[in-house]
Amino acid sequence: MAQAPFTNDIKTLRFLAGEMTQGDLGDKVGVTRQTIAAIEQGKYSPSLEVAFRIAHVFGKPLEEVFRWQAD
């Protein structure tokens, strides 16, 4: 599978949020731990709703969590 055309700071934000686990974040946004892991690694592009939910958990605007890499 090709690398997603974006990067994210989810792992760093989880660490700064008291070392939140992938499972904890998944529970808060309604997805599995495996989904969070795949998003962090750039192997899966989240839906817009999930992306906004992740940003909301950390109290950040979407563009501070995800960055699009244009060609």
TrEMBL record:
UniProt-recorded name of the protein: Transcriptional regulator
CDD domains for this protein: HTH_XRE
PANTHER family, sorted: DNA-BIDING PHAGE PROTEIN, TRACRIPTIONAL REGULATORY PROTEIN-RELATED-RELATED
PROSITE patterns noted in UniProt: HTH_CROC1
Domain HTH cro/C1-type: 20-65
SUPFAM superfamilies: lambda repressor-like DNA-binding domains
SMART domains, sorted: HTH_XRE
GO terms of molecular function: DNA binding
Pfam families named among the record's database cross-references: HTH_3 (PF01381)
Keywords: DNA-binding
